TrEMBL record:
This is Arc-like DNA binding domain-containing protein. One of its GO terms (molecular function) is DNA binding. Gene3D superfamilies: Met repressor-like (1.10.1220.10). GO terms for biological process: regulation of DNA-templated transcription. Transmembrane segments: none annotated. It comes from Pleomorphomonas carboxyditropha. Residues 6-43 form the Arc-like DNA binding domain. InterPro entries: Arc_DNA-bd_dom (IPR005569), Arc_rbn_hlx_hlx (IPR013321), Ribbon_hlx_hlx (IPR010985). It comes from the Bacteria. Coiled coil: none annotated.
Amino acid sequence: MTQQLRNTEQLALRLPDGLRDRIKIAAATNHRSMNAELIMQLERLYPADESAKSHTD
């Protein structure tokens, strides 16, 4: 295992019925793990540059 996990945080998450299955299907379609799929979508919705702007307002 690589040392990439050094700067990560874990999050316990409750999902509505059916959402886990939809994420699993999307991840398989995109040839990603479920974790990678979630990260990709969250990064798309919350880009780092937008986060930095909201902290300075």
